[in-house]
Design a protein that fits this description.
68% of the residues lie in helices and 10% in strands. It is of the alpha+beta class and 396 residues long. Keywords: Membrane, Transmembrane, Transmembrane helix.
């Protein structure tokens, strides 16, 4: 096992050192700065009053007009340079329709360089309270139920976000290979997260072997699929916006990087569960041979595969629900819809992740059965040596 993990671990560390972003602004970052006026801040403001008004749009010839209601709101700036000031802003129809009342807190944009003084506009709702409450509740529940292991998983999650924010995302915005960047970052996350949450053991190492195998498979299959399907990656407003910032970005590579990162959580879940099942079976019946242990482990694995495949498909379907609703409105053949550039990306992402997930199960099961028996044999041999030494000592 170490013959596999040590080279992979060294390669991951070398990859992190070589590919770590220099900190210099990328072309996309420089271009994005031009879209935001210098000195722009995002202060919060409390709504003092709301006055709706009709902002309906005239319809096309022969079509009824669109009835819309916008609003003018007076707000009190509660933070930043303009704290304590009262400003009037206009709220779009979709914002007013979602509900804005006196006392609500909004996030505004403040343009310090606007003519006639600082200008304020609606940016978003303030969501600090619900997000903070849910985050605290999540941490408390994990800590209470999973105890120290749960706390360790939270630390691992923080490390994962650190790698994503400081290494993967800046690397994807630079001239580095998206595939290599996502693979190195994902491997680094898995090395730390698995051992941190589950401890240094042969069982955890088995899960890590299965996870790395799955990641490698995702990268290879994803590269082939993206190339064969000619996925451009320019299928959403976000990618179109990225293209305006830096048209030289490898958007097909970004599709592949997204497939690799998306596979992290599911692969980790499946492999650690499968490794734990093998070790539990071995502890219950140490007399099981490799073939029996593998066969019983795969019985558990098949159930896990069946449920997790549904999880992957429904997770992607939920994320793409508005897109699916649009296709429901279009009068075109279902096969044309499934193979369109917008939906093909999700279909290929789902299929590649599902195939890697399914194949990671037998690999993890086989490795777990082998190392569980090997560890048991080594422990038995060590015990026998100690007993022999004790017998020899008493014989003297």
């Amino acid at each position: 096992m170490l013959l596999v993990l040590v080279p992979v671990g060294l390669a991951t560390v070398i990859g992190l050192v070589v590919l770590w972003p220099s900190g210099e602004p990328t072309r996309a970052e420089v271009a994005a700065e031009a879209f935001v006026p210098p000195g722009t801040t995002f202060p919060e403001a409390r709504v003092v009053s709301v006055e709706p008004f009709d902002c309906s749009l005239p319809g096309a010839p022969g079509q009824p007009s669109s009835e819309l209601t916008c609003a003018r709101a007076v707000v009190e700036i509660t933070e930043g340079e303009g704290a304590g000031q009262f400003q009037q802003i206009e709220l779009p129809a979709e914002v007013y329709a979602a509900g804005v009342e006196e006392g609500d807190v909004l996030v505004l944009t403040r343009d310090a360089g606007a003519e006639g003084g600082a200008g304020y506009q609606f940016y978003d709702y303030a969501r600090d309270l619900p997000i903070i409450v849910l985050a605290i509740a999540f941490a408390v529940v994990v800590a209470v139920v999973a105890r120290l292991r749960g706390l360790a998983s939270l630390v691992g999650l923080a490390f994962a976000f650190f790698v994503l924010l400081q290494f993967v995302l800046p690397g994807l915005l630079s001239d580095q290979s998206p595939t290599l960047t996502s693979l190195v970052g994902s491997a680094a996350i898995m090395f730390v997260v698995l051992y941190l949450a589950h401890g240094f053991s042969a069982r955890t190492t088995t899960a890590l072997v299965g996870t790395l195998f799955g990641l490698a498979l995702v990268a290879v299959m994803g590269a082939v699929s993206v190339e064969a399907a000619r996925l451009t990656g320019l299928t959403s407003e976000e990618t179109i916006q990225l293209q305006t910032f830096d048209p030289t970005l490898d958007f097909s590579g970004l599709v592949l990087a997204g497939i690799v990162v998306a596979g992290l959580g599911v692969l980790n879940d499946v492999t650690i569960t499968q490794a734990s099942a093998i070790w539990q079976l071995h502890e219950v019946d140490p007399g099981l041979g490799w073939r029996q242990l593998y066969r019983r482990g795969m019985t558990v694995g098949r159930d896990h595969i069946a449920s997790t495949v549904y999880t992957i498909v429904f997770a992607y379907a939920g994320a793409a629900l508005p897109l699916l609703m649009l296709f429901e409105l279009y009068d075109q053949p279902i096969w044309t819809t499934l193979t369109s550039s917008a939906l093909a990306e999700e279909v290929i992402r789902t299929l590649v992740g599902a195939i890697a997930l399914v194949l990671a199960v037998p690999v993890t099961t086989a490795a777990g059965a082998f190392f569980a028996i090997a560890a048991s044999g080594a422990a038995g041999a060590a015990t026998e040596r100690r007993m022999s030494a004790l017998r020899a000592r008493f014989a003297r």
